[in-house]
Design brief:
alpha/beta, UDP-n-acetylglucosamine1-carboxyvinyl-transferase, Chain, 2 domains, 23 strands, binds shikimate-3-phosphate
């Protein structure tokens, strides 16, 4: 599908974002091994979360609508076929950790993009735990007596951390992960709420062997990483007044909002509340004031990794040189996001140069509508759509249907707000 986007003169209205993708995956996976039925309202309707649900069904778990029939820690059944994780790195890595601890072997596959992404980062620590694990293709499990380890992760990754913690639920002794930077903590928060023995100390998270998890009942908050597109759009379009309802603002997810505010964007918070241990607010977005150039340095990128494509769009509108570095991980996401954003924004007239681990962007530049490629990557498609709202003339985005991965009604929301 080609999405055609025209410049916006105003962005106004209230929207409810899709359920948080990270929390949705975890609710399904942890619900599947709980002792009893869990309920998760507002799960992400994106294709990635559907991939997790389908894999769990292949493992004998009854998942329907908001309900997950937990089969207990040892109740998963071998799948008759390789598990298809689609485009979803979270599905593949989290399930690899869980399934490495089962007494049967499972093969996990995915689409072309996922097949190119690095899985040695989970295989290596799982093997240290004495699990059977190999890649490529990714095969795990068949030897269920695991040993706890203390793992110092070379790269900050919530997916890797979560995989190790899930295997750690089944391992002898404690299993700990120490990260260079604290990444999103939804796995440990949810495990704690379900009664697991979780200890969090700064960037170190440990879990003990667990015989039983209590079921959960949660309302999944709106996805902050989806909100990020509107935080930038609302700041850059001259007349805007956007209210984003019930957005999850777990502090391990919202560094991007803090950065935007420090640049001169205006993001207000209203009606603060808690949902199953996760902080939730309504976000209010109005046009930005004078903007300062962006500086993202090593150690900052991990906390806003999914928001960096749309940050690049913001940087094209800021006077001066913006430098985003320490973001080499963007090369191994659903696409090479450094290259894909450089290609798209350059075609629209931006001054953006890709470095080894980031971009240098000189602004402000008036963007021109162009024919651009999403690279089949949902966050690239949505970031370029935001660029299109502030460009002159019409922009066409190729393969725009990939927004379905995390935000199926993105283009409906865009049309409604304009
Ligand atoms: C996620 C972790 C991040 C993020 C992804 C979701 C998660 O990936 O980019 O969209 O739910 O744990 P990494 O762990 O590879 O950084």
């Amino acid at each position: 599908m080609i999405a055609t986007i025209r410049p916006a003169r105003k962005l106004e209205g209230e929207i409810t974002l899709p359920g948080d993708k990270s929390i949705s995956h975890r609710a399904l996976i942890l619900g599947a091994i709980a002792s009893g039925d869990s309920h998760a309202r507002g799960l992400s309707a994106g294709v990635d979360v559907k991939s997790t649900a389908a894999c769990l069904r292949d493992l004998g778990v009854d998942v329907g609508g908001t309900d997950i029939s937990g089969r207990g820690m040892r109740g998963l059944r071998p799948s008759a076929k390789p598990l298809d994780c689609g485009n979803s790195g979270t599905t593949m890595r989290l399930l690899a950790g869980l399934l490495a601890a089962q007494d049967f072997e499972t093969e996990l596959t995915g689409d072309d993009s996922l097949s190119r992404r690095p899985m040695d980062r989970v295989v290596e620590p799982l093997r240290r735990m004495q699990a059977r694990a190999s890649w490529p293709p990714l095969k795990v499990g068949g030897q269920a007596t695991l040993e706890g380890i203390e793992y110092t992760a070379p790269v900050p990754s919530a997916q890797v951390k979560s995989a190790i913690l899930l295997a750690g639920l089944y391992a002898a002794g404690d299993t700990a992960v120490v990260e260079p930077v604290k990444t999103r903590d939804h796995t440990e928060v949810m495990l704690g709420a379900m009664g697991a023995d979780v200890k969090i100390d700064g960037t170190r998270v440990a879990v003990g062997r667990t015989e039983r998890l209590e079921p959960i009942d949660i309302a999944v908050p709106g996805d902050f990483s989806a909100a990020a597109f509107w935080l930038v759009a609302g700041g850059l379009v001259e007349t805007s007044d956007i209210r984003l309802l019930a957005v999850g603002v777990n502090p391990t997810r919202t560094a991007f909002a803090g950065l935007l505010t420090s640049l001169g964007f205006r993001v207000g918070r209203a009606r603060p509340r808690l949902e199953a241990g996760e902080a939730v607010v309504d976000l209010e977005v109005t046009p930005a004031g004078d903007l300062r150039p962006v500086r993202v340095e090593a150690g900052m990128a991990a906390e806003m990794i999914d928001e960096l494509p749309v940050l690049a769009v913001a940087a094209t509108q800021i006077a001066g040189t913006s430098v985003i570095s320490g973001a080499g991980e963007l090369r191994v996401k659903e696409s090479d996001r450094l290259a894909a954003m450089e290609a798209g924004l350059s075609a629209m007239g931006a001054d953006i140069v890709t470095q080894e681990d980031g971009w240098v962007i000189n602004g402000p530049r008036r963007l021109e509508g162009a024919h651009v490629e999403s690279a089949g990557d949902h966050r690239v498609a949505m970031a370029l759509a935001i660029a299109a709202l502030i460009a002159d003339g019409k922009t066409e985005i190729e393969d725009a249907e990939c927004v379905e991965i995390s935000y199926p009604n993105f283009f409906d929301h865009l049309e409604y707000l304009c």
